[in-house]
């Protein structure tokens, strides 16, 4: 057996070597020249190999846990260096060595940090090799290890940091960055599992692990508030798409809470310098983004509610699926994703997380989302963020559209659609089509549809009454039809080739269906214009026919287009057969009338 | 002319002297619009399709793609677009030694895309200008590094970060970026050389994971047409942007070049990338349209650049350069994957239409009514 004094010398030597390794890896390697990028790492590797042979002997001789742990640290670091210097196979071998030699003592405080680090690294390694399943195995092991260790935790079993293993004398003061090393490792395990589940296409699990990562960041108080809030708000968008409205709202509320807290903190600080300004700017920017996420939440809630009501009508369901969301939510087992350390009720109470059934509730959601859009628009101004500003206006238009669905009074519905028109037209006229052509197209199209929606409401009302429509009412109908036609036409015109001024023989897949539908709608709209003058009627009927004809001709020339508009095509084919006959009839009437007039004069 | 997608071209360079001396194997094959990458040991090869595959390996072969051919395919359209008043953008991507500089700049006797573009530009101007039609050419040069924009042509301010803006009338621009008048390619060459001196040095350290510095050189063409009788003049302004994308080997492996172009399944080690992971998660649609949710931009500046050059009447081209050598297999594969991903970037500003079931029902009824009416006519 080695004497106490000889051991002490060996230990001091090991400590010095370890300190050297740390310096090489943590400091020197950052300054390695591009021509020798791994210089420090290779140097560290040499020392580590030396330490390894010393420790192997020590372990053989005494089987002491501390030596085993030290050997584990050395193997771990050899593995890390190998991975960093792109020798994955050697790295794997060393890391596996480390894990295998320590797994019998896994739950010991001297061992746990080493093992968790090694398992995390093996997770990364296998992921880099393109085997997420294998990666997940190691990360799952790390997760279980933590859970078992912390289940049996008592005050004396704090995990031992690496360099404490090598230290030969008492520390002067606790090293700050080794505190909570276990917690930090576990947070990384959670983060890596989030990514691996993403690679395995289990997105719900991935989101759950992202939530856990965020939660742990909160609890460790180790996070950048703006980043954290943005992440939480972004995650909410995932949840709401899965009908997890409670979870979505909760994550949005958390985001707002953290941002508000950060804003108060900033306000307490004094400063006018560039860094302070940059912080304020960043806060403004990302607050606007969180506001947009909130608005999308409201929109999705309204849109989902509408779909539910519409599908219930169609299926004639007997039980109105009450106010609970759980039957349509797709989050499965991982529902309980709450930031228990935050008090969020004042944020969450502002908007519901249940499906909407009646107008009053829809209106509350509308008002809330509208307020968030107004906030976002303060940052995303038209002259600095034109595209974003337009998107916000489009969201506002959608809000009105959904609100109109829940409104039963037709006059009020019309007014809501009219608000849409006002907002869309007012932003459209400010845009230069040279730079924003695609955006202008979207706006023209939506205006075409909106005017058409208002038209339909008016027509319906006219049909319901038995009285003759007033001239004003007819004028209104025609005006709406013309406006709708005008907007659809502008959309169509924008597709013309810039030099030849002709419609392209083949339309781009992205615009194919909208373009053909635009013709379809225009065809129908021309037939809605009311006029006593038969000559004018004839003109409009001709234009209607032309529009339907375009669709038919296009599909004849482009077989592939048929599948995009099969239903509309069938109707158009009928129309182009029948309308010419109607046209003939009308022409005949016009001629007869002309002759009658002749007789008179 | 209008397109929502990037046109992607790949070019393979000849063997260099060292490779020839070592007798290195060629692992790149090109057939029409396909590039095939062979692995010497494993039997499977990987095939990629691109809009253009420029085979510049061997000057004596028939299908050799010379500087002139590359320019004819990619540069002429861009110039035409500019004279019509529309914007264009060329992205150059390639790792050190893959021939990117040669393709973009070239040398005295074998000029690359940029000198040819500029020469043609000034030639056309000389031919077309008159009392009524005058031209002005200005250039700007900026660097995007760590989400910050620096003016490489203004020695006073190039440490400051400039703001990118989208004006509703003026379009996208960088606030405060200096624009200098030029009258020849020589002027342009001199300015680029000056600007290059100011590029961030740290960006070239291969070990730095955040070494993503992109340089954007823009040529702004202003055409003024004056009606001599009335004195009224109209202006057309177009911009050609040449983006040199950071192509460090590390950057490609960690996928650190814009979140839309992130490499597949590698784990990001640092929690600083949590935002990108969550964004990616939220982005992947579960059948819904992209407009139903809002995913905040992370790599905003580069994405903004890409976004604003797609769609409308802008032309966007990416040129990726690769080495033919077997020992560059990994880098070549990375580049090809990157270029492949670029193909799929589409401006998502597609029109969303409302369902028109009601209208169809109504029209069907009308068809029936018409049939009835004509039967009785």
UniProtKB/TrEMBL annotation, chain A:
Q: Which residues cross the membrane?
A: none
Q: Which InterPro entries match?
A: KBP, TPR-like_helical_dom_sf
Q: One Pfam family, short name please?
A: KBP_C
Task: Name the domain of life this protein comes from.
Answer: Eukaryota
Keyword Cytoplasm among UniProt keywords = yes
Keywords of the record = Cytoplasm, Cytoskeleton
Q: Which GO biological-process labels does this protein carry?
A: central nervous system projection neuron axonogenesis; microtubule cytoskeleton organization; neuron projection maintenance
Q: Which parts of this chain are annotated as the region Disordered?
A: 309-328
The protein depicted here goes by the name KIF-binding protein
Q: Name one GO cellular component term.
A: cytoskeleton
Entry similarity comment: Belongs to the KIF-binding protein family.
The listed locations are:
Cytoplasm, Cytoskeleton
Record bears the keyword Cytoplasm: yes
Origin species, per record, is: Cryptotermes secundus
From TrEMBL, chain B:
- Would I find Ligase among this entry's keywords? no
Spell out the InterPro entries in the cross-references: Kinesin_assoc, Kinesin_motor_CS, Kinesin_motor_dom, Kinesin_motor_dom_sf, P-loop_NTPase
Q: Which UniProt keywords apply?
A: ATP-binding, Microtubule, Motor protein, Nucleotide-binding
PROSITE patterns for this protein: KINESIN_MOTOR_1, KINESIN_MOTOR_2
Record-annotated residues binding ATP? 94-101
State a single Gene Ontology molecular function: microtubule motor activity
Q: What SMART domains is this protein classified in?
A: KISc
One Pfam annotation, family name? Kinesin
Domain Kinesin motor: residue ranges: 5-345
A cellular component term (GO) from this record?
A: microtubule
* Family matches, as CDD domains: KISc_KIF1A_KIF1B
Q: Could you state one GO biological process linked to this protein?
A: microtubule-based movement
Query: Can you tell me which family this protein belongs to?
Result: Belongs to the TRAFAC class myosin-kinesin ATPase superfamily. Kinesin family.
Its protein name is Kinesin-like protein
